[in-house]
């Protein structure tokens, strides 16, 4: 049996509101942390770059007010940035539920990183892990190496997806190619377990040949 691969927040570099619900209100920040905990590189430049400038200069609540106004119009970047704030509890009371709802809205609005963030957030909650598959698969389709890694581990375990070593190898190889060093060990282990049929299917997945 393969060792159970761990998927920690540090390793993954981390990283539900109803759709009709408005973004949650900014709370007085007794829990507020430094804006430096989310560097500007982790934010998306919105239509109004003033918000990012305010954020990086420590005017967190002013930035959040701008994003909340933009989020009401369905702005994907603003929704994503609000989700980042709620996930880490910067300027607002931390809430993974609120963050998940906002990431989901951002993903539906077309934000390129929202599926990955949402999938990882749901995966780390055992009670919502089954929900993570849909968003991780979308993120992997967008070349997220972290999503590939988690999906590879899930395929090895047969966790909420059928156990399939050919698919596991595909995902884990993508993760390794993308620099996820933690994917090397499970990849080496499954290659020792793969049957000739598994290896043929793995080649077919890479080449696009019909699966048998």
UniProtKB/TrEMBL annotation:
Q: Which UniProt keywords apply?
A: Signal
Signal peptide bounds: 1-20
Q: What superkingdom does the record give?
A: Bacteria
- Which SUPFAM superfamilies does this chain map to? HCP-like (SSF81901)
Name the record gives this protein: Sel1 repeat family protein
């Amino acid at each position: 049996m393969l060792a159970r691969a761990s998927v920690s927040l540090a390793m993954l570099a981390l990283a539900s509101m109803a759709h009709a619900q408005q973004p949650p209100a900014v709370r007085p920040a007794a829990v507020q942390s430094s804006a430096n905990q989310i560097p500007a590189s982790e934010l998306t430049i919105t239509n109004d770059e003033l918000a990012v400038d305010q954020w990086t200069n420590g005017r967190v609540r002013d930035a959040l007010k701008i994003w909340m106004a933009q989020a009401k119009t369905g702005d994907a970047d603003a929704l994503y940035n609000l989700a980042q704030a709620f996930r880490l509890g910067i300027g607002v009371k931390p809430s993974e539920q609120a963050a998940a709802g906002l990431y989901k809205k951002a993903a539906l609005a077309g934000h390129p990183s929202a599926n990955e963030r949402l999938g990882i957030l749901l995966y780390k909650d055992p009670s919502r892990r089954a929900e993570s598959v849909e968003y991780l698969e979308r993120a992997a389709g967008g070349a997220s190496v972290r999503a590939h890694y988690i999906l590879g581990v899930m395929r090895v375990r047969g966790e909420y997806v059928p156990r399939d070593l050919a698919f596991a190898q595909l995902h884990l190889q993508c993760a390794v190619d993308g620099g996820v060093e933690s994917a090397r060990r499970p990849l080496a282990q499954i290659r020792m377990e793969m049957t000739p049929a598994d290896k043929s299917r793995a080649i077919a997945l890479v080449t696009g040949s019909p699966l048998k």
